[in-house]
Amino acid sequence: MVTIIKNDAIDESPFEVVCGDAIDLAESNQILPMATYLESLEQLRGRNDIGVWVDADEEVEALAGLLDLQVIALNFPAFNDGRAYSSANLLRRKLGFEGEIRAIGDVRRDQLEQMVRCGFDAFEMADGQDLDAALASLKVFSDTYQIAIGTPQPLFRRR
């Protein structure tokens, strides 16, 4: 089990990111690399215990029509690489994905508010990050001015 932040709490998730030699398609609760998932579709079809992780340089549109997954993890190879923000937004708005979108990789507390606004709802923090402080950072702002995934109208329209 891996410790994540989800639903405004620190929680243990049975889904773990795997790659390389750790991949065993017979195992459950794995988050597989997108290439492995796409290559193994026939073998994995009908299972609801597999997730997919998408690297920053991969196109999430490749998963269109295959979104019966419980979790999609988007990788941040470095804290200053923002490509996964766009991927989360595309998953929610364009592809209609309603499952868990988890941020993985170099995820730091300063990023969480913007991640939520783009569609992330779970966070696997980078090594050395204080989970309690990260969770508290999600409660700093009580409202936002602009539209976002969870806020379809700007503040002036909500008043």
Précis, in short:
The chain is an alpha/beta fold. Helix content is 25%, strand content 22%. The protein has one domain: 3-Layer(aba) Sandwich (Rossmann fold).
What can be said about the biggest beta sheet?
Answer: 8 strands, mixed
Beta strand %: 15-25%
| The level-1 CATH class | Alpha Beta
Span of the ends, CA to CA: 43 Å
Structural class: alpha/beta
Elements, N to C (H/E): EEEEHHEEHEHEHH
Trace the largest sheet across and list its strands: 2-1-8-7-6-5-4-3
What does this structure look like?
With 159 residues, this protein is α/β, with parallel strands linked by helices. It has one domain (2-158): Rossmann fold (3-Layer(aba) Sandwich), CATH 3.40.50. The protein contains six helices and eight strands, in the order E-E-E-E-H-H-E-E-H-E-H-E-H-H. It has helices at 34-39, 41-44, 83-94, 112-118, 131-137, 155-158, and strands at residues 2-6, 9-13, 16-17, 30-33, 50-54, 71-76, 100-105, 122-123. Strand 1 and strand 2 form a beta hairpin.
